[in-house]
Amino acid sequence: MSGQSASPALWVRVALLSVAIVFIQIGVVSEVPVFGVNVDLSPLFVVFVGLLCGSVPGAIAGFAVGLLVDLALAQTLGVTSFIFTLVGYWSGRLREARDPQAALTPLLVGASGAAAALVGYSLMEFMLGVDAPVSFELLRQIFFGVLVDAIVAVPVWLVIRRCLQGAMPQDPRRRRGRRAYTTGGLSPLSRAR
Amino acid sequence: MLALLVVLSLLLLTAYFGESPDGRLHGVQRDFLAVLSPIQDGANKALKPVRDLFSWFGDTLHAKSQLSQSLKQTEKLRRELVDDQAEKRSYRQLLALYHLDQLSINDYHPVTATVTGKSPNIWYATVWIDKGESEGIHVNDPVINDEGLVGRVVQAASDGALVDLITDSAMGVSARVGTSTATGLVQPKVGDPNDLLLQYLPTDSQAEDGEYVVTSGTVEPPYDSLYPPGIPVGQVTSTNEESAYKSVNVRPMANLHNLDIVQVLTAAAGSRPQRLESLAASFSSTQNAPAPGSEQLASTQNSG
Lengths: 193, 304
Prior knowledge:
The complex is a heterodimer. By secondary structure, chain A is mainly α. In chain A, 72% of the residues lie in helices and 0% in strands.
């Protein structure tokens, strides 16, 4: 996490949220189809943890949520963990390297995370030997999967940010700003002199 | 840290993929299922009002789109019903002659269960149910609802079970079209939960749009079917001619998007009641001797 260590409070909140997200996903969200597909909250949660907390918490949350999903749904163990680890790490690196602050960031990052998870999952399944053609229907399902995830990305982002508030590591942009003030060059006081 | 987690995931994946269903990692998954079942059951009850609210909107839209289609289908079925009246009498006589008329779903000891969860993944079509081994549910038991075949149990814990839906990529169901004797294998079209494919039908077999596809319930070893005969699987939507076989696109009868109450047929391994086994045995012996109407009997045997 680029030199910062996540607080125990953050890990506790991420762990509780992970369990809650998986339960809500399996028990409620998966039961409600939209455009013939289901909203998948788990990749959104993973990318937003990465985007809010950094690459290491993102990767760890991705691994944990993936493992939980694979265990709970009797899927091939390791597949979802592998994909979510990479997705969580990528979003964390995005925060650390670019720290995007645009209003559309959650929507774009959420859609990208969902797309990466869906395409990655399909590739893994093909590699594991599932006998299925790359049909138009499959592409349609992936497209609509990304679309519905993008639609709910902003509300999910707001909920996750609210839940993690107070335990999150320092915002890289604010840190950079404060460092500039402490050097004296940009301080209003020094300019007044 | 990233490398460690990636390596760990790949190790898990390799070990899981390489081991048998009785292996250690599968055992961990089963234990997890046993622990999670009561929690999931409780969470399901607590979250049911929210789910019902969302489902109501979806159901209303779905019902509107189904209305005109249902009206056309009702008209078609009415005409078919009139045609079938004459055939029905002789069919009943034949069933009574071989005591097949007494078989019903109740012979398979159905256990009614509530669906408490569902997989969001297009590659895994699975649902959780709130009944398990304590109610007599075992792995491979068929699962139905009031519309037709839903799937089969793939994992069972004491108070819950995991069901693979017929649209799961790992599923295959022996089935036939309507009154035809030719059986094929119903498999899902991955990525399209509203389409199944009935494959390996002989090229000369008849299949018309709108005809029902039902489980064949094969009882001759080694081609035993896990599913009882005559359970509706879906309706034919189109036919494809292939080189050696014919395949048929089938729309599932059961609305797999919105499952709530299902029934698990728990009687014996493969869910075949004892009575049917003895009947199958008696069929084998009677088939050796020439009998009047033996062609019709073969047809009846295929259908259950």
